[in-house]
Amino acid sequence: MAKIPEQRWRIAPLQPEKSQQISMSTGLLPLVSQVMINRGVVTPELANIHINPEIQDLPSPLEEFSDLAVSVELLQDAIASGEKIAICGDYDADGMTSTALLLRALRHLGADVDYAIPSRMKDGYGINQRIVEEFASTGVGVILTVDNGIAAYEPILRAVELGLTVIITDHHDLPEKLPTADAILNPKLLAATSPYRGLAGVGVAYILAIALAQSLDKIAGLTSPILELFTLGTVADLAPLVGVNRRWLKRGLSLLPYSQLAGIQALMQVAGVKEEQKQLQPDDIGFKLGPRINAIGRIGDPQLVIELLTTDDPGIALERAMQCEQINSKRQQLCEQIQEEAIALVETKPILWQKMRVLVVVNEGWHHGVIGIVASRLVERYGVPVFIGTYEDEAKSIIRGSARGIEEFNIFEALDYCQDLLGKFGGHKAAGGFSFAASNLSALEQKLSEFAYQYLKPEHLKPLVKIDAQASLPQVGRELYQEIDSLQPWGIGNAFPVFWTPNVIVKQQRKIGKNQDHLKLVLQETDSDTEIKAIAWRWGEYCPLPKKLDIAYKLQENNWQGSSNIELELIGVRLPQESEDGGQQRRPEIQHNSDEVQKARFDYKGKVYACSLWKSLNELRIKNPEGTVLAINKGDRFGLLGTSRDDAKSIDVTQPHYYQLIKTALAALEKN
After folding, report:
1. Which of 53, 199, 618, 630 makes the best surface tag, with the fewest CB within 10 Å?
2. CA distances (Å), origin 102, targets 56, 126, 256, 266, 422
C-alpha cells in the first residue's frame, strides 16, 4: 500500500450569498470572493479596500498614538541642541531593519545618533542595565528603543534614574506594569480595530520617522528609502498583512526591485532576485532576503546588517551582503544538521510524542540561534507542539530552548503552566523561548504533557491543511490565477489560497531534484479530460502515490523558455472521502485478473494468517484471524494496518514483529 502524508484537513464553510454579493461588487469570481471571506473580508466595501488599500480613509497616526507628538517634540529638541541619541535595537530582522531605518532617518535630519544591539548569546532579548549604563557613560541624552523595551521595566527605571530621556517604540504584548518612559509608542495600546494595530517594530519606527521628518519639513528624499526598510522588516518579521501594513507593503514592494539603497541592491544580487521583476513579492523577501538578515542575528554580528542597510557605498554594501550570504549558508548547514539529528532522535529512540501530545527533544552541541527554526520544521513534520533544547554550559546543568506550537496549543500558556520548573521564559501563542535546570527535564516533559492533554485530542496530532474552497481542475487556469494575484501581498493574515479537488487520477509521477526528494506529477480529474501538471516539494518519499486521491493545492505560474503555464503545488492529499451529502464519492471499480493475485495461508506464532500478493499493485496483504489487514508495497518501509483503509494507520514494517511476519508470508507464497 502506498504511503501518503498523515494530515488533517479543515475546509472553510461555503458562504454563497456573501460570495455572490462581493463578486457583483468587485467583478471577481465567486471562488475568489470566498477566499476573501475566509480572511475576514465579508462585505463588498471591505473587499474593495482589500483589493485597493489606497482608497481607505486612514486616521492620522498622531490621533492614534497618544505619545507620538511627545516623541516628536523630544527628538526635535535633541536634534536642535545636538544632544546625543542612542538607539537600542534587537537582533532579529524586525529589530535590525528598525534600527537601520531610524539611523537613516535621524542622520538625514541632522541628529547625533548611535546605536547598540544586545547579543543574542550574551545578553538575550531587549535593552538591559549594562546597555543603559554604557549609554549614560558615553554622554547619551536620549535612548530610543526599537522592537523592544515594553517589558524592560528595571532597565528603563535605571535610565530615568541616570537622567536620560527614554522613548520606547515596540510592538510586543503589554506587561501588567508599563515602564516609566517619557513616551511609549506601541500598537498594542491602540483599539483592536485600529488599522495600525498590526504594525511590527519597524512599522512603529517608520511612523515615528515620517512624523519627525514632516515636523521638520525635511521629508524630501527620505520616504522611499525608509519605506523599503519598512517593507523588508515587516515581511521578514511575519507581521500580519492587514491594515496599514497591507497598504504600505503594496507601495514598498513596487519600490524594492528598483531600490536606490546600496544595501538592498547588494542583498538582492547575492540572493538571486531578478532585477527585471515588475514587483517583488513577499515570498522573495520572506524566503530570499529575510533569512540572509535573520541569519546574522542568529549566529553573527548584527552590526553587519546595520552597515549593509545604512551605507551608501556600493563596495561596502556588496562586501557586507556577501558576508551575510556566507553566514546564511552556515545557518542553513546548522539547521540541516540539527534537523537530521533531531529526527533521528525522535524516530530511532522511544520518544513517545504521540502519547505525550508534545514533542520534547534535547541534545548537546546544538546552536541556540537556530533551534527555533528546527522546531518549526519538526512541527511541520509531526504536527505536534515542539520544545527543543540544548545545553548552555559544559557541565550540562542548564538547558536553553525554543518552542513552536500548533493552532490548538498556546505556547506561552504552556510555559507559564510550567513556570515552577523554568528559569527564564517568554513568548506568545505560537512560539516561545525558555531555560531550565537540566535536572528538571523529566518533570518538565510530564508537566507539558499534562498541559497538552487539557487542549489536544489525538486527532489534533497531525499537520493541519487549511483549505479555502473546492475547485474543479477545469476552473484552475489563467483567469483564476490572475484574480488571485490581485489579492496580494500574501502573508500572515492573508495566506495564499488553497483549493481542493476530489477524485483526482494520478496519470504520471516521478521523483525529481538533486536528491530525488521532490515529486512531479500529471493529474486528471475524474469525469474530465483536463490534465494539469503539479509539483510536490519534499514528497519524494511518498512516491508512488496512490492512483486516485483528493488533492489540496496552491496555484503557481511556471515560466520556462518563454512560455507560461499554470500548475499546482500540492500541499495535501488524502484517499477519496465520503461526499458532503453523506454518500460515497463514486469510484470506478478496478478489475483484477485472478492470475495477478497469488494467495496462501500460513501459521505464525500459533495463529493462522491469510496472505495475498497483488501483482498489478505490487502489494502484499496479510490478514490475521481477527480481520486486521497489513498492506505493504514491495520496498516500502511503511505499510497500513487496520480493518479497512479508512481507519488504517501507518506502521513501520522494519519492526521485528512485522518483519518476521512478512518474511513468513512471502515464504508461504513461494511454496504455494
Report:
1. 618
2. 27, 17, 18, 20, 36
